[in-house]
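Course assignment 3, question 2. Fill in each field.
Student: A.L.
Task: Predict the tertiary structure for the chain below.
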Amino acid sequence: MEDGIKISEDAAGHYRPLADASDDSRLKQLGYRRELSRSLSAISNFSVTLSIISVLTGLNTTFNTGLTYGGPLTMVYGWPIIGMLTLVVGLAMAEICSAYPTSGGLYFWSAKLCGNKWGPFASWITGWYI
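Answer field:
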């Protein structure tokens, strides 16, 4: 698939290009209308990022475990490797977010990606365990 071309699936299961590739048209296809503002100021973005990464608790746990069981070698090579793998997970979630731009986020993604049979169960698991 070429960059910049968005596709949708029709009732027969065939994929076709979208004429209007905006988020509003995708939400309309999913049966939703835009209700929430999708903008963050610089301070809001920083605040959300800081709360997600949880610097203080993350560093204490990581340094204690890494230095106790793996030593400095684990710290030197582990951080960049795990950092790159975390970046890959973030990029994958960003791709899913662009395909399903809803405010329900993870619940809706898990329901749509699992299909009709397992969708409700996957959403429930996502809500309670993630």
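Instructor remarks: Helices lie at 23-30, 42-53, 55-69, 71-99, 106-129. The longest helix spans residues 71-99.
Grade: pending
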